[in-house]
Design a protein that fits this description.
Radius of gyration: 25 Å
CATH class of the largest domain: Mainly Alpha
CATH topology of the largest domain: Arc Repressor Mutant, subunit A
Distance between the termini: 79 Å
CATH architecture of the largest domain: Orthogonal Bundle
Protein name: Metalloregulator ArsR/SmtB family transcription factor
Number of domains: 2
Order of helices and strands: HHEHHEEH
Pfam families: HTH_5
Strand order of the largest sheet: 1-3-2
InterPro entries: ArsR-like_HTH (IPR011991), HTH_ArsR_DNA-bd_dom (IPR001845), WH-like_DNA-bd_sf (IPR036388), WH_DNA-bd_sf (IPR036390)
Shape: rod-shaped
Organism: Mucilaginibacter sabulilitoris
Strand content: 5-15%
Helix content: 55-70%
Structural class: alpha+beta
Number of strands: 3
Length: 116
């Protein structure tokens, strides 16, 4: 079952699991030890991340290791990019407006000073 990657990253515990495993491959027990919750609760988070494709579980001997697969986060980046472009345009327009207002204000002060 494929889950929505946005749902996966909506939870702070899952974001922290991603962060941990992105920096270092870990076995399931090591991941669970990092959190102040039951192992079954951590396992549920890991299951959701696996279903989203953000984690891959690999069996090595008797242990199971989590490995990050962050390619799915591109979907989040692509979605956020449209808003970055929107706000960049809006902020650039605001900057232009404020610069124009500042110039007009400076010119008005210079004009008044010449009259005096």
């Amino acid at each position: 079952m494929y889950r929505d990657v946005f749902k996966a990253i909506a939870d702070p515990t899952r974001r922290e699991i991603i962060n941990l495993i992105a920096h270092e491959r870990m076995n399931l027990n090591t991941v669970a030890d990092k959190f102040d919750m039951s192992r079954p609760a951590v396992s549920k988070h890991i299951k959701i991340l696996t279903q989203c494709g953000l984690l891959v579980i690999k069996q090595q001997g008797r242990e199971r290791f989590c490995q990050a697969n962050l390619g799915q986060l591109k979907e989040v980046t692509d979605w956020a990019e449209q808003y970055r472009q929107f706000w960049t345009q809006k902020l650039d327009a605001l900057g232009d407006f404020l610069n124009k207002e500042q110039e007009e204000s400076t010119n008005n002060v210079k004009h008044k000073n010449k009259k005096l």
